[in-house]
Design a protein that fits this description.
Rossmann fold, 11 helices, 2 domains, alpha/beta, elongated, homotetramer
């Protein structure tokens, strides 16, 4: 009988539990057994392994976080041998790894050493290559958009600028999608360098046309060479620059780890559920060494070396977003 | 200078305003003018036409409903001539119609008479052919899933069955997606006939395995020949049958028109925004007689005769959903 | 060392877990021990008792339902002796009961037999006497108001009536508060008999003044003698009558058990937390035989015979609500 | 015929529109007329006055912000005469002012000069004296609690501290109530000075007892003498200190103006509606020079000199909150 061991690795994201539930229930329908590894790869290295039944995953679909816990341990070659031993000891057919881009690099290493592994893309950052969407992204975008909705309803009487700092160290997916969905008046992402004058002039133009209220969204990893002091974060620095340049009251919102939390959206629940089914299907067919991906509306299996590369935010969409400024 | 006239027709759906905003802002960036027709085709027949500027659509992105109003009037051949005259009088280049499946049939008629029209698929029912998703569907599914989440948190101490009736007269998209996303224990849709025993036995099996609480989702258009008295709705009739057959307390929730309301989800805002851009792009290229569609993750233009056909719910997914019962 | 045993009885309500957490944490700060009884009074009769530590209640604050489970068993005199024996066996100083109005009658019986018991008013119905508010009421009202908000955003183009049936078998608190908070156009509660003409004429007047859309909220326990066939619920029957009388399309929403679910509102979390503290404070002072109440913004202890009486909905407020129709 | 003129002044808060709607509808039922002043006192000084009918306020109940706009202009003695003239010109019987604590000082000045004014306490800060609650407070607390809920669901695997900065320049109401409702592990408010060691040791103790994850809530106006560099806000400075002292990864969330936005909660809708009714009732009785207050569950009228004083956060509750750390 085939036996799948699930682990979540890297930063957590909403939808992890929905994916775990899907793998467990799909596996039992196909007469496979399922184990759960607690605390990511570290748990595997320290034998923290439990049995997951259909009932263990009852009620977890709408919950944020992950019932298995996670850790950031990236594995090295020395650890591959230990992982193989643990897998043998527990008679694990395939390791089902749910994680972020860095986790896919670990999966790539395991695959190179013939350790049987399959993975699901789980990250709010949406920066995993080879898939159009990652589990958790839509929920995080929703958190950003709801914050912008709230900012929009507050008084517009004054000439005031709101700067909102989102997550996204390497890529601007969250800022871009959250900004568009929340009706931002300017979006700053790591992929595109913007001159200070462009932002300031845009705020001026809005004020002149009677809209004294502007919302600027910036990804935490945005690199603007003209920001002098980013010790308190780029959002804070940008707010200071705008206030100095325009004389308008400028306030900051730093969304922080809220973006990793909350109940997954319908979109993320469905994506996690479908991807979990696809993973079990691959196990059934004896396939390993692949990540489940969604490309052009279809589920596919892609290689880990591809998945581990950074997928940059869509610049064409970034340019289109300017239509709404 | 090109001039677009927007109208919303048929039952409304969340995301209509996001789409209107997108068309208006995209059009002004391309130096086109935009008019708004109030009250659907009826408004066009009675000259209820206003000017829409970039500022008219400020702040409408997160709002449910439609600022233009709607009506269910399906047009006939006699009205086509009047519509043409109104369009000439207002020098309208293209009519941009946002509406449901029946509306696409009206657009088909207009196209057959060479009236220049483009459309966006706007309906919570997701039953328009030629597109993977319609604007409003994700929000309605979210409303259903949130209702199921609430039902799940209430006491499971008793052997109790909850029947939830969703919208969906001809197709089961809402019940199917809402049911999966909300973790339903049984889903009944118009596309699939289910024996009473199958439902009852499933509820028994769950009770025997210690889960005395079951949630059954049924689309309002489901046709179960063994339901005797559906005067109070199929949900009510199904609840009665289950209670009689199992002796378990069975309660009903009828979601009703709530499913048409609420602020659009991120998914619907982005879909509406992207589709609005695509429509204006088609106007720029001089294309008419098409509906904007999303197929395999790509935006396309499809013919109205195709769009006006019913798209039935995905039976393969329905069968997969049983894995989670 | 004093030892408190907590149990939840009757229909559950949001905030139960917040109250349990509060009792546990407050008790440990005062060097008391806490047990949890699973499944209400039935659990006490069958020795289903666990130990609750500060850590057992970690993370339960925002969760709906109750981690202890509940049952509807109303106790009789024969059971009182068994309860006393179980309490002796587990060396329980005080039984802390969280429950609805009927549960307060059971607490009254226990008190008459000198079984030491304290209670918190936990019910979405808000019908417990002696307290201004019960835990769970605000959350249920919020669920109703959000449903009405969604109905309000959907198309108002047609002359259409929406009937919304809320819980409330004996009293109209939920319908009244939910209706006011959600901007209902007419509210029907068990405490007040309304003529059919009054409702129908009001809907007519609204239509004549240009508001063709009306929302009527009715409590499930409302008794309108002119409703002919209430087999499918009073909401359904009322919708039918209105449609027949006005010729306007009339649709029904039955909120059902959703109203018992969901994460408690801030108001309910604070009320549950404060009341839990007060209960432990009473234990410390050696007081028993009382329910914690909130009266005029102050926490008090009231007798069970008072609490077990029905508190009818505020008729003065009902009359004031007419101002907003 | 009596004529009321409504204006909103100071920072806006959710529930303003619910209050405006209540005043308008209550007034028309009592045969009074209602005007709306746009942009606060500034609008009164510049004749920006509109007529409000029952229909003008249709649909505004659930909306954040204020349909009348606001401004921060505090009035001086020179302006009182102009205000009186405008009121005479428009034949205004009473000025109905919705605003924050500073606004009550302006109302006090007007009252001293015999200008007829009545007011409602509208501020998220809850710092207006003489009333237990202000309109907008519950909604802002809800925003804080929801952010904390999201933080709680994200991974607890690492030893990590989350610092959340709330509004509250002079008082700690928001931090205190939001912190309790959201299950914070430490709360810092302007009213209480805390030693660094107390916070750090508490975080250590939690880590030792297996809870490596701590959430610290701090009001933006908290004054901790041991915070070295608060240029980027006290939240950022506190996070830095905790990280330096504990070596634990510490992240910051700055909620910012989100706290002023969003749809009002049921609690705020009901409070605003009831207070609006009370204000109109006072007009009917010919009373002026008072603010509507809620004290001990009862509506009262209090003097402006009292209301303009700061109401500090409840220290007893602050101490009780420690039970839950």
């Amino acid at each position: 009988m085939k036996r799948i061991a699930i682990l979540t690795a890297g930063a957590d994201a909403p939808g992890a539990n929905a994916a775990i539930r899907s793998i467990v229930r799909s596996a039992y329908h196909m007469d496979m057994e399922v184990l759960g590894v607690r605390g990511g790869f570290a748990g595997l290295l320290s034998d923290d392994v439990i049995i997951l039944t259909s009932k263990s995953v009852s009620g977890i679909l709408p919950r944020g976080g992950t019932i298995l816990g996670t850790s950031r341990t990236r594995i090295d070659e020395a650890q591959v041998q230990t992982i193989r031993e643990v897998m043998d000891r527990y008679r694990i057919t395939v390791l089902a790894v749910l994680g972020d881009r860095e986790t896919m690099a670990s999966c790539d290493l395991l695959t190179q050493h013939d350790v049987p592994v399959l993975a699901l893309p789980l990250t709010i950052d949406n920066d995993i290559n080879g898939t159009d969407e990652t589990i958790g992204f839509d929920t995080a975008v929703t958190t950003i958009a709801e914050a912008l909705d709230k900012l929009h309803t507050t008084a517009e009487a004054h000439h005031r600028v709101m700067v909102v700092e989102t997550m996204g160290g390497a890529t601007g997916w969250l800022a871009l999608y959250g900004g568009i969905a929340g009706g931002a008046d300017f979006i700053v992402i790591p992929e595109v360098t913007v001159e200070k004058d462009k932002i300031v002039n845009h705020i001026y133009r809005r004020r002149e046309s009677g809209r004294g209220f502007s919302i600027v969204v910036i990804a935490e990893g945005a690199k603007l060479p003209w920001l002098s002091n980013t010790e308190g974060g780029v959002g804070h620095a940008l707010a200071q620059e705008i206030q100095d340049a325009t004389g308008m009251e400028t306030r900051i919102t730093v969304l922080g780890h809220q973006q990793r939390g909350g109940s997954p959206t319908v979109q993320d629940r469905l994506l996690a559920t479908r991807m979990g089914m696809e993973l079990v299907n691959a196990v059934k067919q004896g396939i390993t060494g692949k990540m489940v991906a969604l490309t052009g509306g279809k589920f596919e299996l892609v290689n880990f070396d591809l998945a581990a590369q950074v997928k940059m935010a869509d610049k064409e969409l970034y340019n289109l977003a300017e239509l709404f400024y």
